[in-house]
Amino acid sequence: MDDFTTRTYGTSGLDNRPLFGETSARDRIINLAVGGFTSLVVLVTVISSFVFPSLPPRPLNVFFAVCILLACGSTIVLIFWYRQGDLEPKFRNLIYYMLVSIVLLCLCANLYFHEVR
Q1: pLDDT confidence band for 7 (50 / 70 / 90)
Q2: How many other C-beta atoms are found inside a 10 Å radius of the C-beta of residue 72?
Q3: From the CA atom positions of the chain, what is the Rg in Å?
Q4: How far apart are CA 112 and CA 110, in angstroms?
Q5: How far apart are CA 90 and CA 21, in angstroms?
Q6: What is the dihedral of CA 57, 63, 65, 66, to 10 degrees?
Q7: How far apart are CA 78 and CA 73, in angstroms?
Q8: DSSP per-residue codes, 56-68
Q9: Distance between CA atoms of 72 and 32, rounded to whole angstroms?
Q10: Nearest Cα residue to 91 out of 75, 67, 106
Q11: pTM of the prediction?
């Protein structure tokens, strides 16, 4: 059986790098921080939609929360595909853009729920 460490795959030397490169510790920390912050903001927004301004919740508030959760669903699918290696690294910027959009949407929702004028 062939020794896989000696294959060059048409390159000038040994090429044992991963297809999309390794994720550095800095990238992992950034991913966890951005993802954790977004998750926290979405959780606060969903809870606020049911609690504020009073119980029972307003249907419009619940609809707003459902729309935010649907936006989160598509982002979670992209993150899952990215972590599997099915997407190119340039999609990481799209994922960050979508997360920032979700945070801004949550900010607008919370301002509406708390009737800030």
Answers
A1: low
A2: 19
A3: 21
A4: 5
A5: 12
A6: 130
A7: 9
A8: SPPHHHHHHHHHH
A9: 16
A10: 75
A11: 0.73
What is the SS3 string spanning 87-107?
Answer: CCCCHHHHHHHHHHHHHHHHH
Residue 57 to residue 48: CA distance in whole angstroms: 9
Residues 106 and 113: beta-carbon distance below 8 Å: no
pLDDT tens figures, 54-93: 778 888 889 999 999 999 999 999 888 888 878 787 888 8
Give, in degrees to the nearest 5, the angle at Cα 43 between 54 and 105.
85
Nearest to 82 by CA among 67, 72, 93: 93
Contact assessment for residue 8 and residue 14, using Cβ atoms and an 8 Å cutoff = yes
How far is it, in rounded angstroms, from Cα 65 to Cα 55? Answer: 16
Q: Are 87 and 81 in contact (CB under 8 A)?
A: yes
